[in-house]
Here is the input.
Amino acid sequence: MTQDDDDYVEWSRHAMVAATVASSGGSKKKYKPEDFIGKPPWKKREDDRKRKEAAANAEISKLKEIAARKGIDVTF
Here is the structure.
């Protein structure tokens, strides 16, 4: 775990208390710790990785399409 991960775990405890207090104050909305401190760092890294993979796959698809139009058989 990185330092950011450790900090998030520590702050999530405080956010849990804040979410509990805010949700019990007669509000109809049920708060979650993420409402106060955002997504966990490991989720952000995973989202970034998935976004980069999707962009790379889209680029490969474009290249395959161009090659198919020119009659070239391509495998990646």
Summary: The helical segments are 3-24, 34-37, 41-69. The chain has three helices and no strands.
